[in-house]
Design a protein that fits this description.
Order of helices and strands: HHEHHEHHH
Radius of gyration: 14 Å
Number of strands: 2
Largest sheet: 2 strands, parallel
Number of helices: 7
Helix content: 40-55%
Mean pLDDT: 86
Shape: globular
Length: 134
Amino acid sequence: MDSTGLNEQLPHIDDGLQSLSPKPSPKEKIWHIVAMIPKGQISSYGKIADYAGLPGRARFVSTALKQAPSNLTLPWHRVVNSQGKIAFEKHTPAFREQMQRLVMEGVLVKDGRIKLSQFEWKPDMATLVLAMPF
DNA sequence: CAGGTGACCTTAA
DNA sequence: GTTAAGGCCACCT
């Protein structure tokens, strides 16, 4: 492991996502992208929407995550808002779980916030295009 | 069917 | 650095 703790290997696509229909629904596209966020890195609802080809639909990303089947075991905790803050209200169980999961991966969470400049996932377009069936 | 809600975003103070 | 308003749109009720 390197000093940054961010030197994870390429993210694996969850098995549950391998067998998506040839024409993924918007929700499935979002699940796909979220599954690609590497351990120790984060992205935002808006960016995920962009990567999924659904610009302007950040809110839909949260809807999609809420509705994701648990068997997909998505890394939902790697998605925060555009300010780098955990979207759940502080002192809620969800907030604590998300923070705990992030810290476990080596992400620095200070006062419910993460420095995007340090931890944001920046996929290159080629990776996205190649990894996704759409 | 109509209106409300929300794990959001950008912009403008 | 903040916050507030307006926009957004799929899902719920």
